[in-house]
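Quarterly update from the structural biology core.
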Amino acid sequence: MKRIICILATLAFSAGVYAQTADDAIMLSQEYYEGTARTMAMGNAFTAIGGDLGAIAANPASSGVYTYSQFAFTPSVTITPYSSTYIGSNLNGSNSKMTFSNAGFITSFDTGGKTGLLNFNFGVVYNKKRTFNSYLCATGQTDESSMLASIGSSLYGIHSPDLEFKDGYNPYYNSSAPWRGILAWNTYGLSTFKNIDEKRFPDVDDEYVAATENFDPETKEAFVADYLAQNFSRSTYGGIQEFAFNFGCNISDILYLGLNLNLEAVNYSESQTYSESAFNPSAFQDGFVNMSQTYWRQTTGSGFSTKIGAILTPVSGLRIGATFTTPTWYSLKDSWYYDMEVSFNNGKRYVESSPTGIYNYKLTAPLRFSVGMAYTFGRFGMISAEYERVSYNAAQLKDVNGNITTFAAENAYIQSAYGSSNIFRIGGEVWAGRIALRGGYDRFSKAAIDDSAVSFWSCGLGFKLTQRSAIDVAFQRWNMGERNFTLYDGYFGLDAPVGTARNKVNKVALTFSFKF
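Predicted structure, tokenized:
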């Protein structure tokens, strides 16, 4: 069964507390390395292969294979087609963005020995660890529910005077109300009917009724008065960049060892716009015309991890590799704000903006390990396969002081909803003179217990220009599959409309490498 996720933010931002979600913690814990065009084309199945700057992210021991120094950089273009179905309406589109997937250099030092330590190498490599680029648009018509009514239901137990500004009182910081509820009240998107149903709400004085609803005094029920056009767009962008400070060595051309000290830079941005508009404003008691809401959020921060690896060549042509990566310790900051506008057929329009919320916290992403095997056929080509495992239910959120109790509910959800993911990669290349033909496939088993698997396939070409320079090109397709979504929460027994989003990520990478 596919999970239904509420794409539009419905978190309760109040009094300086930000409820960072468990799903966001897992998103920051997932790794989809890009590498060089060569490693990308071969599915990044490089745990047992060395001699490539993209391979150093996969296995630090890859640098030990170098007997020369090298510099390389990999620009890439990401093309993201998307489509959605929402209340019977279909939308399609595509976006593109240029970035860097990999860059770095490695320096090799020959010890002059015949056995034992033959050479040791140092390098610094930048690699894109995760890309957040995604897009979604949805449109539809309904007379069964509305976002404004859903926001009103979220104010249960909160009195309307607590939503208003007074001398020395700011509801954004002095009340427990959701920020969107404060916006909706102060733009006249909500009104109240005091004590209209004491049996249903025995402990509150106010029930909130949206401007998109009409109220029947006889039945004491509120209902969406007429059809609403709902429109939504969402874009996410940014990524996790990794800077690996690498040391590798070669022992008797049999064993290669390596260590990476990894510094991570996180930049995730999200922008959303939602609107619902009346087809016939006169059908609404308040003369409702339109409500529009924008939401912006950014997550920034840094992290640290270490990775150790080894490659063993027991017989000619056969390579066996293994790695272990410590947990990644992140220090993060979230910033967010809302805007809301509500208009009526009497010509009045009300606009309100929230303050910018800021919250600092920590995340421990789970450890990883991998094993791989490769076989080289002389100078004609190679084939490689590997297995990696990560237990996402070990991810843990903490407050800025390292206290896990602040996120007790989120951490409990992570442990129950997420499990271990098994990652399989396979790749190969064939050389014909100065030209190489490459292909690869990756499969990530589901991270959440009720989620679906993710797969990549890739292909590419390599060209040796001279003995010291080469150009590689790769194409990668990431099939993200389908996800069901809602744009707001259901309320009072009404289900919010469910849509389906389909996303793919196409990437083209070009690597320029130089030996010296």
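The chain has a mean pLDDT of 91.
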